[in-house]
Amino acid sequence: MNSHSFNFRKQFKNKKVLVTGHTGFKGSWLTSWLVLSGAKVVGLSIDIPSNPSHFKAINLQNKISHKRVDIRNLKLVKKIFKKYQPDYVFHLAAQALVKKSYLNPTYTWETNSNGTLNVLESLREIRKNCVAVLITSDKSYKNLEIQRGYKENDILGGKDPYSASKASAELIIQSYINSFFPLKKTKVFIGIARAGNVIGGGDWSEDRLIPDCVKSWSKNKKVIIRNPKSTRPWQHVLESVGGYLLLASSLKKNKKHHGEAFNFGPSFGTNYNVIFLVKKMKKFWKKVSWKIEKKGKASFFESNLLKLNCNKAKNILKWRCILTLTETISLVANWYKKYYTNPKKIEETTFNQIIEYEKLLMKRLIK
């Protein structure tokens, strides 16, 4: 395995990179890694989606060109793409919560489907070689609760507005690749990334397991567990973000993967349920307690089982999750403990964790 494949500092140094949704949890970690790599980042986001916020906690707005832009505003998004002519685009802007998609389905569809459409329209303004990684979701698959793990060519679908809007975004992407970005005539090369559930420091999203836990435990309260037996492909945020960076690097070198989707999730057979993850956190957090929500209170549909088959990314991109679950939980717990102890120094913690992960990448994936 060539070490240059994972040398993101060499790949992205001094490159113009446009990131949508850079103020969100995954977006802020991706942007941090790009900043560390020496990229010139332009970030587009409608707002800062949580309080507290990882983006604000690490002062990311002072390290990039931060633009408050609604991804639904086609005119403005096109103007920015045309002006900056980026070398790379990472599209993460989305309404990412299943529960919120029931409360505000119109906004969810407009953001996830039309927002992706607007990015694709804006990519038509690029006049030079550009690589775009469009991030959708593992929930893009029609969930049949199957054990074997979803492959990239499995049927798409969704019972809830969030999942359906992400599946629809995938159809929009493929239609644009075929209609406006055919391989032999395009300068814009597109990859699609579908990632499993990510956890990591700095996530304060609503109705998500780790944020719910640390918010409760930091106040010595019991966390309410909604679906203790639900199984998810948990992975550290740097695993999936590293996959996005690797996909972009690979597309830059090898155009034949233009228009293809890749799953980024933990090794097959390493999915764990919610209660297992909470108990694992107990090893790294002093006061841990929880309460199972009584059945019958669920106000919206959530799948019980989600598994991804990531053999394609493993075989073609030479990517895989490199952290054990214990290492993942350790990184997560340490980040939050340091935040609640000394929030002013949390910027250093974020960048140190990226550096630590980079070293592990080189050690564990390079042969």
Structure description:
The N and C termini lie close together (5 Å). It is built from 13 helices and 13 strands. β2, α3 and β3 form a beta-alpha-beta unit. 47% of the residues are buried. The chain has a single domain, classed as NAD(P)-binding Rossmann-like Domain (Rossmann fold). The radius of gyration is 19 Å and the shape is globular. The mean pLDDT is 91. The protein has helices spanning 8-12, 25-36, 54-57, 74-84, 98-103, 105-123, 161-180, 209-217, 237-253, 274-281, 311-317, 325-341, 346-365; strands spanning 16-20, 40-45, 65-68, 88-91, 130-135, 188-195, 198-199, 223-225, 231-232, 235-236, 261-264, 272-273, 290-292. 42% of the residues lie in helices and 14% in strands. α4 runs parallel beside α6 (105-123), α6 packs parallel to α7 and α12 packs antiparallel against α13. A seven-stranded parallel β-sheet has the order 3-2-1-4-5-6-11, with helices on both faces. It has 367 residues and is an alpha/beta fold.
